[in-house]
Amino acid sequence: MPSATTHDIVTIVTAAAAVPALLDPAWALPDMSPVNTGVLVGAYLVSGLLFSPDLDTRSRPYMRWRFLRFLWFPYQRLVSHRSRISHSLVAGPLIRAMYFAVMLFLVGLAAYFLINLLVPFDPTGTLLQFARDAALWMQQHPSTVFYALIGFILGGATHVLLDTVFTWVKRRF
Fold this sequence. Notes:
about 0% strand
């Protein structure tokens, strides 16, 4: 297996190399503006450095979460290392993103209810309004959402492909 440092270097170098290619008019990707390039590369970096397939172990990406590590504790208990869930090319990153969204929602809901004990307000209304606003924004910016999704998937896929190549080379030589 490649080391965590190797994974980080490959993620950062490939992200940096992608920027000029994505902004080159010769590639002519639909709606690839500088903003969408930043979104794609940013999602790629976040996926590769923070949402790595190795979150199912006490890895460097797991340690990067610092005081929010507790969010990944159930994931580590549910997903075995290098399983088809964590190390699949497309499903892995999407499962981690959905898992994180659910955990963030649950922690946010708990925080709203705790705050509500001190200062009464309607946490459900606030969360529903946030969900409506987020859905409206995604409807208004579909290409940005698409490129964020592609960048996130590619960030996880790069990790898996690097693991696969290293394993193949190790077995062959």
